[in-house]
Each structure stands twice: as structure tokens, then as C-alpha cells.
Design brief:
The chain has 19 helices and 16 strands. With 453 residues, it is of the alpha/beta class. The strands form 5 sheets. A 5-stranded parallel sheet has the order 2-1-3-4-5, with helices on both faces. Strands 7-10-13-6-14 form a 5-stranded parallel sheet. The protein has a two-stranded antiparallel sheet with strand order 8-9. Bound molecules: adenosine-5'-diphosphate and magnesium ion.
Length: 453
């Protein structure tokens, strides 16, 4: 670990020289300040871990000095060195948050141990702050980005239903934030500290899904070597999130309906009736009413699930949120991946705005992440964005129109745009659809990005 120590040498003392030499030899990074003011300046600017200071300062009470440092940088630990002081004053300083108090003469080896311990405490403090921030983000709606009317409306509903014990159906295209909203509801409900269990109904076949949801008894089927608790039992007292609910087979739908109505079920292969208290949040990107018309979804189940419906807007329908979302993801990725991107160029923003975003917020985050990884400057410029964005079709045209005044190469370019958009930017699939080789597609894309003068 790189340790940085700031030595406050307001008074000249031989010990500072000695301490600096010693700490340097121990490969610590050293800063020194000759006044209180300079101390604050350095703390604002540099990654200092520990402050080493005289307890007797010239113009400021050392307790006030300590408090000021703790407000500026709550993570920094302070070690005071001093001549004899009354025990009561030393105690006061410790109570106010000083890490240690140390009387002259100083034993350097001992001082080094104290510094190392203080650094450990600082690391713990930083970890704790990170966790608290994460928890707060989950509990607040701070991580749901959107100032648009449509998103504010969603947040309002979340706010009013979270604490009520009703089932909720969340609908919206893929990547619009259905799971994020479900999380916000659970963590803002009275069940927040109880289990939160998620099941994706699309990834299992009927048999496996039922044993996932309801559990099974030993010997219920070949391979059922022991009793297994289902997700509903595991979620007892808390919330279950049923994702992709449209994929629930009809047989399983009846069993789910029974849980919603009677709050009871049996494990697969079992006779014992089990009672549970579980709040259900379901999500889908399909139109359940249509599935009901087609006989693939039970309407009674639909009404039970759909006590409150939250419809998430597609990203392209809330363009005013783009700048906010872009800066949110840029900050988030800077923090997570250590990038130092400061912003996004006008051109790039224009490109983001004119794309249709079938994958919604998830797709936007991925596009920004890839641009940030490629960026050679400290901002995202259109040329770093994935190719399929640069070629997105004009807004609101879902059919291809050729106007009379296009040149052959313009037609070609439109066709490539459209095809890449259809394949979500998958070049292999696009090349296949266009009947050309992948390499010629790459060449054509390159020509489009850098048109001949
Ligand atoms: N309004 C939003 N603000 C911030 N992040 C969002 C927003 N909507 C979606 N996301 C992020 O986009 C990604 C996809 O969201 P998710 O909830 O998994 O979508 P869905 O379940 O609808 O497919 C997640 O990383 C999520 O945090
Ligand atoms: Mg999802």
C-alpha cells in the first residue's frame, strides 16, 4: 500500500528532520506543511493518509485544528506529538478523534508502528464508507436516474407503493430498469431486511422451474437425492422477484395463482402444505394482455399480479434524460474502472440522441463503457462510439425509404445502417444478411466513418 504522511512542521524541531529521514527510508510518501493553512491546502489536494503534527500549535487550538481536519477529510488519521501535556487534554484530543498521542522523545520505530496501525484504520474507514454509500444507493432512489416526466412519474409510484404490501407488475422493454425498480421497491419496504429472492422464469424448463420455485421432496424424481427448499420458502417474510413472468408455463401459472390467493403450496412430490408470506414483484417485456388473448397466460393470474402496474418508458422516449444518464455512467465507470473521462463531445451526444436504443439503458451503458475504454483523450468523441450507433437509421422510420435523389453509395450506406441496427450492431450477422463478407463490411463501415474528401 502507498502510504502518504503529512508532517506539520509549524515549529522548528530537530525531531521533524529525523522523522522525515526515517519515514523516507521506509518508502512512505511525505508531504510537509509549515503552517495550518498549508495543511488544509495539502489535504484538499493530495491523497494524504496520516497527519503528524505538534500538539502545541501557534495560532490555533489543536482541538479545533483536529476538528477542521476531520471535516475536510474524515478519513485521515491524526497523530499528535508533544511535550508533556495534562492527561485530561490528551484524553480530550483522543475523544475528538485523534488517532494517537505521543510524547517526546520519539522512538522512530514505535512511531512507524503507530503510523502503520493508523493506516489500517483508515483503510477500514474507507471500506466502511463505500459500503454505506452502496447501501444508501440501494435504499434511496439516488441510483434511479431520470428527470424526465415519465421517470419522475415512475419514481412517484415506487415511492407510494413500496411500503404497501401489494403485488406489483413491472413492464418495459429489455434494459429499461425493471430489475432496478424491483430492487428499489424491496429495499424501501418493511421487508427490506428480510430475504429478497430473484427467479428468472425464462431460464428453466417446466420441471426444473417448479422445483426451483416450490422445492421438492427427496425422491420426487430421479436425481432428487434430498429435500430441497424452493425459492418461495426461502423468500418467506420477504420479497420474490419473478423476472420474465410471460415465460411461466401454464401448469406453473396455476400453482403460482394458488400461492397468491391462498398463500400456500406443496413441494414437488410432497403432501405437506406449506404456508408462506411473500410479496411478489413480477416483470416482463411482453404484452401480457396479448398473451391472454392467445391463451398463453391466465387472466386470473394477471389480475393477481397486476395490483399495481409500473410501466417503464423506453429510453428513446425520454431523450431529456440522456445528458444525466451519460454523466452518471461516466462517473460510475470512472470510479469502477479508474478511467479519467471528463465528458462527452457535442457530436457524440448527438449520435446518442439519434439512435433508437433497442437495448435501452443497458445498451447505453455498454456503449459508453466501450467508448471509454477506447478513448485516447479525456472525453468521449463520436469516433469512439460503437459503429452501429454512427449508422443508426433516422428517427421514427421503421421502414426503409429510398428517396429519388440518393446516390448509389448513399443507398448502400443506408442499407448498411439499417442492417446493423436490425442486428444490434452484430457485424457478422449483418454481413450475412447483406450477402457480403465480414471484411468487406468492415471496409465499407470504415469508408462511411471517414468519407473520402
Ligand atoms: N433509470 C436508470 N438509472 C440508472 N441506471 C439504470 C436506469 N435504468 C436502467 N439502469 C441500469 O441499466 C441496467 C439494466 O437495467 P435492468 O434493471 O437490469 O433492466 P431490465 O430488467 O428492464 O432489463 C442496469 O445496470 C441498471 O442499473
Ligand atoms: Mg431484466
Amino acid at each position: 500500500m502507498d502510504l502518504s504522511v503529512l508532517v506539520v512542521e509549524e515549529r522548528e524541531r530537530p525531531v521533524w528532520e529525523k522523522a522525515r529521514n526515517y519515514l523516507k527510508r521506509k518508502k512512505l510518501k511525505l508531504f510537509s506543511a509549515s503552517s495550518v493553512k498549508e495543511t488544509y491546502k495539502i489535504l484538499n489536494r493530495e491523497p494524504v493518509n496520516i497527519v503528524l503534527s505538534d500538539f502545541n500549535l501557534k495560532n490555533i487550538n489543536s482541538l479545533n485544528f483536529l476538528k477542521k481536519i476531520k471535516t475536510l477529510r474524515p478519513d485521515v488519521e491524526i497523530i499528535f506529538l508533544s511535550e508533556r501535556v495534562p492527561l485530561s487534554r490528551a484524553m480530550e484530543a483522543m475523544k475528538a478523534g485523534a488517532y494517537d498521542f505521543y510524547e517526546f522523545p520519539i522512538n522512530m520505530k514505535l512511531l512507524m508502528t503507530v503510523i502503520e496501525k493508523a493506516a489500517e484504520k483508515q483503510t477500514l474507514y474507507i471500506e466502511k464508507m463505500k459500503l454505506e454509500k452502496k447501501f444508501k444507493e440501494r435504499v434511496n432512489y439516488g441510483n434511479i436516474i431520470g428527470r424526465s416526466k415519465a421517470m419522475q412519474y415512475v419514481i412517484d409510484i415506487v415511492d407510494s407503493v413500496a411500503s404497501k404490501n401489494v403485488n406489483i407488475l413491472i413492464t418495459g422493454e429489455t434494459g429499461t430498469g425493471k430489475e432496478m425498480i424491483a430492487n428499489a421497491i424491496h429495499y424501501n419496504s418493511s421487508r427490506a431486511l428480510k430475504p429478497y429472492v430473484k427467479v428468472n422464469c425464462a431460464v428453466f424448463n417446466e420441471g426444473i422451474l417448479e422445483s426451483e420455485l416450490f422445492g421438492h421432496e427427496k425422491g420426487a424424481f430421479t436425481g432428487a437425492a434430498a429435500r430441497r427448499l424452493g425459492r418461495f420458502e426461502l423468500a418467506n417474510g420477504g420479497t420474490i422477484f419473478l423476472d420474465e413472468i410471460a415465460d411461466l408455463p401454464l401448469g406453473t401459472q396455476i400453482k403460482l395463482l394458488r400461492i397468491l390467493q391462498e398463500k400456500e403450496f406443496e413441494r414437488v412430490g410432497g403432501n405437506e402444505t406449506i404456508k408462506v408470506d411473500v410479496r411478489v414483484i413480477a416483470a416482463t417485456n411482453r404484452d401480457l394482455r396479448r398473451l391472454i388473448d392467445e391463451g398463453r397466460f391466465r387472466d386470473d393470474l394477471y389480475y393477481r399480479l397486476n395490483v399495481v402496474k409500473i410501466e417503464l418508458p423506453a429510453l428513446r422516449e425520454r431523450k431529456e434524460d440522456f445528458p444525466l444518464l451519460a454523466s452518471y455512467f461516466i462517473n460510475k465507470l470512472n470510479e469502477e474502472k479508474g478511467y479519467k473521462i471528463k465528458g462527452i463531445s457535442k457530436d457524440a451526444m448527438q449520435t446518442l440522441l439519434s439512435y433508437q436504443w433497442p437495448g435501452n439503458v443497458r445498451e447505453l451503458e455498454n456503449a459508453l463503457e466501450s467508448a471509454m475504454a477506447l478513448a485516447k483523450k479525456d472525453f468521449i468523441d463520436a469516433s469512439y462510439l460503437p459503429a452501429f450507433l454512427l449508422m443508426s437509421e433516422p428517427e421514427h422510420s421503421d421502414c426503409y425509404r429510398i428517396s429519388n435523389n440518393l446516390t448509389l453509395s448513399e443507398v448502400e450506406r443506408e442499407l448498411i445502417r439499417l442492417t446493423l441496427n436490425k442486428t444490434n450492431g452484430n457485424k457478422t450477422a449483418a454481413a450475412k444478411a447483406l450477402g457480403i463478407g465480414l471484411r468487406s463490411l468492415h471496409r465499407k463501415i470504415k469508408e462511411i466513418k471517414t468519407p473520402a474528401p
